[in-house]
Amino acid sequence: MIPVVTPAEMGAIDRAAPEPVEVLVGRAGGAVARAALELLGGAYGRRVVVLAGKGNNGADGREAARRLRARGAAVTVVDALDAPPRLGSCDLVVDAAFGTGFRGTYRAPELDGDPLVLAVDIPSGVDGLTGAVAERVLAADRTVTFAALKPGLLLPPGAQLTGTIEVADIGLDTSGARAQLVGDADVASWYPRRPADAHKWQAAVWVIGGSPGLEGAAALVAGAALRAGAGYVRWSAPGGVPAIAKPLEVVTTALPEVGWAQAVLAEQHRFASIVVGNGLGVDPSTGTELRQLVAGAQVPVVVDADALTLLGDRVAEVVGPRTVLTPHDGEFARLAGAPPGPDRFAAVRELAARAGAVVLLKGPCTLVAEPTGRVLASTSGDARLATLGTGDVLAGVVGALCARGLDPFRAAALGAFLHGRAGDLGWRHGLVAGDLLEAIPAVLQQLVGD
């Protein structure tokens, strides 16, 4: 996993470094120069403009300029605070005006032609904590950031301006980072393999939801749980048996309209996880039953959709460390009393700590926090997933991973990553939630193998 630190945390890491600033600037400038050479395919005769600010970011740019000149590039260093409205024609702009500590206003100069842009640490004008952008920011083809990722590189709109991101190791200690970005290798190492003596009940998932007219949501949960590795999936709708087409492999059973929570709790020992809320409805009586179920559960419970609305700001009364809450921004506001706000890392940490549960905050950068403050981030997937039912699929995947034995924190993060990658395999246009069900095994085959 790649560490993610806030600008304030990065400042503390810088100050704790045993090497002097000059050494760190040399290493950073060297990393920028190497990236520039890769972008340009060599330096000799190339025209490079370095926009350099007053701080360490500018010093990194100036060091890169020195190295590129030594390789034969024609380099012009421009003071970022006194830059002309338009830069002259060049092959590459090295954006070293402001780093991750940027605050205030900034308007980058216009560019002649279509030069490549290499950002130093973060595109200047992007807030390193929130991803908010200034009036005009140069969209980078590549960003070289140092030691760790910063939230502003992952959160939109700043994330759309970074180009390809390289994390350069300049010898700083990031072992204390409280957040990490999940990647392919984590899937391969975390995904639980079935033991040789496996049987279906070892990874059984119980899906509770699907009131009349809303059965499709729970059907998607059940199908996704199967595809993500559940050995057995039962789907029960309070008040009756689901009356909708479902995967053939899903077992349906009836639950009473009143007292269904106790009925589930009485049989929960047969299951390794429960997913509740999808298509459940928001009748107040349902909320009473839901709170009984979540409070009494002895297995991991994924709480999604209508169940989040029903719990609302009383969520901390019933959930625990084995509960996974999966809100989008609107549901987050119902749980926390306010939307996440610009600092999403802080917001998800605060709700996880207050609720005492794992919180998966959906978005272009999905964040998963546990009560201790650790955060795992996933940037897989894209806007194709912004369609009805995809969140139900995610809930089913997380439920299956909990059932397979992953702790709820990693199950939620891994589920978000797999869900996004399944979307990446889908149609560029017209993708629907059901398409993800067939893509999940394909993603697992790619990343986990045999």
Task: Please characterize this protein's 3D structure.
By secondary structure, this protein is of the alpha/beta class. It has two domains: 2-175, YjeF N-terminal domain (Rossmann fold); 184-448, 3-Layer(aba) Sandwich (UDP-N-acetylmuramoyl-L-alanine:D-glutamate ligase), CATH 3.40.1190.20. Helices cover 36% and strands 18% of the residues. It contains 14 helices and 19 strands. The strands form three sheets. An eleven-stranded mixed beta sheet has the order 1-10-19-18-17-16-15-14-11-12-13, with helices on both faces. A six-stranded parallel beta sheet has the order 3-2-5-7-8-9, with helices on one face. Helix 9 links the parallel strand 15 (301-303) and strand 16. Helix 6 (215-227) packs across helix 12, helix 7 packs parallel to helix 8 (284-296) and helix 12 (390-403) packs across helix 13 (408-424). The two termini are 22 Å apart.
SSE topology:
Blueprint: E1 2-4, H1 7-16, H2 21-40, E2 47-52, H3 56-70, E3 74-79, E4 86-87, E5 92-96, E6 110-111, E7 116-120, E8 142-146, H4 151-154, E9 164-168, E10 179-181, H5 184-190, E11 204-208, H6 215-227, E12 232-238, E13 251-255, H7 260-267, E14 273-276, H8 284-296, E15 301-303, H9 306-311, E16 323-325, H10 329-336, H11 344-355, E17 358-361, E18 366-369, E19 375-378, H12 390-403, H13 408-424, H14 433-448
Helix pairs in contact: 2-3, 6-12, 6-14, 7-8, 12-13, 12-14, 13-14
